């Protein structure tokens, strides 16, 4: 059951940033919510005299950070022969990567360890897959299940994609059984196209936990004549077509639309909606990653498209209001495995303050 009543309680308390305790009057305070299993499990709320997300400094790996994917030296822009740049990894089979292609992939890849969910942030890309071809553009999620081979060709750029890998199968699992996603209208599947005559030797990369294995094939493995049985496991869906949900009049937590079979991964829309600001809370079991796709409105201190924020489990945070009249598009990933930024992402990232998700003051003052 969703703990909506607990979110409503927060509406009666102050949410000012870093407000000192002595400014609170008698009987006032800041509610702090602790929850298990994302927004779906046991919960507990206490009232504190201070604003708990505030911190002076943090050293170590389990810290909230933010980075801009456009500022990463992602491979692919001038060297298409390398795999996407990993930005976060875990010991639980969940990985995050960034890729920026300007030339067609010179090989076909088959990830034998994970389902891949590509979020196209910029540009237009052609995905040739084992089960046909589809074209994706900005705002599209493209799901490529484990061991489905694919090759990506940029059609118009610059292109930028953010990739989630999950060892457990990913599937659309909207919180409301109908209405949140118009499956018939908005979920698209690849189509078999006539094979191009004369396609010759091809490199196939099998992507495994311990690195790539390279095969040379005498033909293009993606050439196909017809789909004759079953449903194509590859699909695409645009973020703008995942409708937001709310519990009026107070709002409540965002709505989930995709999960992994083992419950280790959950995706939510975090786009603008009618709601009140989240409570100060501790997510006991899940790291939270927010991808801000585009405005025009800002989400708190986040206004640059392609900004990724990561708040590890157990770190007290609040987050900005999602009620932004101008509108914006964003999504939230929750992962039970603890994510750690890779050196490349760490280098490009800054410490995050967990109220409005701006740059932490300690970064601004050295
Ligand atoms: Fe949260």
Automatic annotation (TrEMBL):
One MF term in the entry's GO annotations: dioxygenase activity
Origin: domain of life: Bacteria
Domain Homogentisate 1,2-dioxygenase N-terminal: 108-172
Oxidoreductase in keyword set: yes
InterPro entries per the UniProt record, alphabetical: HgmA_N, RmlC_Cupin_sf
SUPFAM superfamilies the record matches: RmlC-like cupins (SSF51182)
Region (Disordered): 12-34
Key words of the record: Dioxygenase, Oxidoreductase
Pfam families assigned to the protein according to its UniProt record, in alphabetical order: HgmA_N
Protein's recorded name: Homogentisate 1,2-dioxygenase
């Amino acid at each position: 059951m969703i703990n909506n009543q607990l979110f409503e309680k927060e509406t009666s308390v102050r949410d000012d940033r870093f407000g000192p305790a002595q400014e609170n009057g008698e009987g006032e305070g800041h509610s702090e919510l602790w929850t298990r299993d994302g927004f779906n499990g046991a919960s507990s709320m206490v009232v504190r005299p201070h604003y708990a997300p505030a911190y002076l400094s943090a050293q170590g790996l389990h810290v909230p950070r933010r980075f801009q994917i456009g500022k990463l030296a992602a491979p692919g822009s001038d060297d298409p022969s390398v795999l996407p740049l990993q930005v976060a990894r875990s010991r639980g089979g969940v990985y995050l990567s960034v890729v920026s292609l300007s030339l067609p992939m010179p090989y076909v890849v088959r990830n034998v360890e994970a389902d891949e969910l590509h979020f196209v942030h910029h540009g237009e890309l052609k995905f040739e897959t084992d089960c046909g071809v589809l074209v994706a553009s900005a705002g599209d999620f493209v799901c490529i299940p484990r061991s489905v081979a694919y090759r990506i060709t940029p059609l118009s750029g610059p292109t930028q994609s953010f990739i989630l890998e999950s060892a457990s199968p990913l599937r659309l699992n909207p919180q409301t059984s109908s209405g949140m996603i118009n499956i018939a209208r908005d979920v698209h599947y690849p189509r078999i196209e006539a094979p191009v005559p004369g396609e010759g030797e091809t490199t196939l990369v099998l992507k495994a936990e311990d690195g790539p294995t390279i095969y040379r094939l005498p033909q293009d493995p993606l050439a196909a004549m017809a789909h004759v049985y079953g449903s194509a496991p590859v699909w695409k869906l645009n973020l703008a077509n995942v409708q937001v949900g709310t519990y009026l009049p107070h709002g409540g937590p965002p709505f989930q639309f995709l999960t992994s079979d083992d419950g280790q991964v959950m995706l939510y829309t975090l786009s603008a909606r009618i709601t009140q600001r989240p409570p100060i809370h501790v997510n006991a079991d899940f790291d939270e990653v927010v991808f801000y796709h585009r405005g025009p409105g800002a989400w708190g201190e986040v206004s640059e498209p392609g900004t990724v924020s990561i708040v590890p489990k157990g770190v007290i945070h609040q987050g900005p209001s999602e009620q932004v009249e101008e509108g914006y598009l964003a999504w939230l990933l929750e992962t039970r495995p603890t994510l750690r930024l890779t050196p490349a992402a760490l280098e490009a990232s800054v410490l995050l303050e967990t109220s409005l998700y701006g740059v932490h003051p300690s970064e601004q003052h050295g």
